[in-house]
């Protein structure tokens, strides 16, 4: 958004490092679009001072092109929403914002970001970053193997506040002998992420899990600049209560309950999901793992059916193969009936001979003599088609026979809601409220599960028809219970797992 900020505002941001979506500006399509855009925008909004199109205008233009092309590709009057969506997902062309191609209903090409550094009343580009290739100083070498996953190569190019060329240390934290109090949720359903257990013959606790490992790796980096000491403290309440504890520390320091001073937490770590309502009270770090809603249901192996040998090909493919076969039969009969004595007699015998001749080429067992060179060309083409079809059919059938497929009676969320089915979710998670408030499940149909080890028994005994979990938990569940379950990723996305850092809303930390 720097392109739309007043110059006086930018001057107060000197030294700031940010990102902006990169798109090519020196190609003819953008130059033409830019000229027309500025003419129309300036005529409608003459009071504005910047008429350059930004990434949002570029994406809006590309969206219109995609929809227009999709509508034009649909023939007839059958322009239903499903047909339009299918046509949109088949888009494959290069536009102003880059390659427009969808894979798994998402844009195939990840966006490329330019790293910018504010200097004076403007900014300069330091380099580029993409999720696939990491950091690079030149967008032309984004596909090279020399791209790096860290930004150390760009540090020398940054101009900091005060025209400094070296990286400032930031606000120095007060040297305090007291260690930071880190709150850790102890009632987690999935112990692979956070686990708090007592040490025998000791009052201390042992903290482990993926989230703890991530935090300690981050802590090692931060301790190179700041003399930080931390102490972990288990928290037996809900995640909302843990967030409140950090919030009280930020604004109340320590609070009194029934005459006793309660020590709150300086920060909180664990499998804490970033949500909009939580961000109103505390700030979060960048998410370190993706989070979205998933649904797990029981499933049984698909029954072997007598007509399975037809399933490697679709109905359309069988029709196409049959059409090619009979077309070849007709051409062979047409070319051989005049000169080949094998094709003499009633027309039924002639067609039967042509059919047998063509079909036997599948196994290379035909012994009929071919008299016409044109027939040899037709048979040669037919053999190549048969070779491709045979390879594809064998591979698909082998996959169906060796890889067991699962089927479930549960189709989607609407089916569960319509049939008042019982569903399960983590007891201390926000998912229960989300299912009631957003997906409109009845509270009576929700069952709170306290441990990951209870989900299999609840599902197998039909106490619950489906389990709703966040994506990281779903992966952990299927890692241990890979047989007999189907997981479906729903479109509901969350902010991911993040930590609540020290001194949130008071100081800027590295």
Automatic annotation (TrEMBL):
Main location: membrane
Membrane topology reported for the UniProt record: Multi-pass membrane protein
Entry's Gene Ontology molecular function annotations: ligand-gated monoatomic ion channel activity
Keyword Glycosyltransferase attached: no
Keywords noted in UniProt: Glycoprotein, Ion channel, Ion transport, Ligand-gated ion channel, Membrane, Receptor, Transmembrane, Transmembrane helix, Transport
Superkingdom of this protein's organism: Eukaryota
A GO CC term assigned to this protein in UniProt: membrane
TM region positions: 317-335, 377-395
The keyword Translocase appears for this protein: no
Domain Ionotropic glutamate receptor C-terminal: 181-502
SUPFAM superfamilies on file: Periplasmic binding protein-like I, Periplasmic binding protein-like II
Subcellular location: Membrane
Designated name of the protein: Ionotropic glutamate receptor C-terminal domain-containing protein
Organism for this UniProt entry: Camellia sinensis var. sinensis
């Amino acid at each position: 958004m720097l392109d739309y900020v007043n110059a006086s505002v930018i001057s107060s941001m000197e030294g700031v490092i940010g990102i902006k979506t990169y798109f090519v500006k020196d190609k003819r399509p953008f130059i033409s679009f830019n000229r027309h855009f500025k003419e129309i925008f300036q005529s409608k909004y003459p009071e504005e001072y910047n008429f350059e199109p930004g990434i949002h205008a570029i994406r809006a233009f590309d969206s219109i092109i995609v929809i227009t092309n999709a509508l034009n590709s649909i023939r007839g009057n059958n322009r239903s929403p499903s047909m339009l969506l299918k046509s949109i997902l088949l888009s494959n062309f290069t536009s102003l914002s880059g390659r427009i191609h969808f894979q798994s209903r998402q844009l195939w090409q990840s966006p490329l970001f330019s790293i910018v550094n504010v200097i004076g009343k403007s900014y300069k580009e330091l380099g580029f970053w993409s999720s696939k290739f990491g950091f690079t100083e030149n967008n032309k070498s984004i596909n090279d193997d020399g791209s790096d996953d860290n930004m150390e190569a760009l540090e020398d190019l940054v101009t900091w506040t005060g025209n400094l060329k070296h990286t400032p240390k930031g606000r120095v934290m007060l040297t305090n002998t007291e260690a930071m109090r880190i709150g850790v949720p102890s009632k987690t359903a999935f112990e692979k992420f956070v686990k708090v257990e007592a040490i025998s013959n000791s009052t201390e606790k042992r903290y482990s899990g993926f989230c703890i490992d991530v935090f300690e790796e981050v802590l090692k980096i931060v301790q190179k600049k700041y003399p930080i000491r931390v102490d972990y403290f288990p928290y037996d309440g809900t995640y909302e209560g843990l967030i409140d504890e950090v919030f009280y520390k930020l604004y109340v320091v320590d609070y009194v309950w029934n005459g006793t001073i309660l020590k709150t937490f300086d920060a909180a770590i664990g499998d804490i999901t970033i949500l909009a309502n939580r961000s109103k009270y505390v700030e979060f770090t960048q998410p370190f793992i993706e989070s979205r809603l998933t649904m797990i249901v029981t499933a049984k192996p698909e029954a072997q059916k007598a007509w399975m040998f037809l399933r490697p090909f679709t109905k359309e493919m069988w029709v196409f193969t049959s059409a090619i076969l009979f077309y070849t039969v007709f051409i062979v009969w047409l070319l051989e009936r005049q000169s080949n004595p094998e094709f003499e007699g009633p027309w039924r015998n002639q067609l039967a001979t042509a059919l047998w001749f063509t079909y036997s080429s599948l196994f290379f067992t035909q012994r009929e003599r071919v008299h016409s060179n044109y027939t040899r060309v037709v048979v040669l083409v037919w053999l190549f088609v048969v070779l491709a079809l045979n390879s594809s059919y064998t591979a698909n059938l082998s996959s169906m026979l060796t890889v067991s497929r699962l089927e479930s009676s549960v189709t989607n969320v609407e089916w569960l809601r319509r049939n008042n089915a019982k569903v399960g979710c983590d007891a201390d998670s926000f998912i229960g409220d989300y299912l009631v408030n957003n997906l409109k499940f009845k509270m009576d149909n929700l069952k709170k599960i306290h441990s990951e080890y209870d989900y299999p028994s609840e599902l197998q005994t039909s106490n619950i028809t489906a389990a709703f979990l966040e994506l990281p938990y779903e992966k952990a569940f299927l890692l241990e219970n890979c047989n007999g379950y189907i997981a479906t990723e729903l479109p509901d996305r969350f902010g991911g797992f993040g930590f609540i850092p020290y001194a949130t809303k008071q100081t800027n930390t590295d």
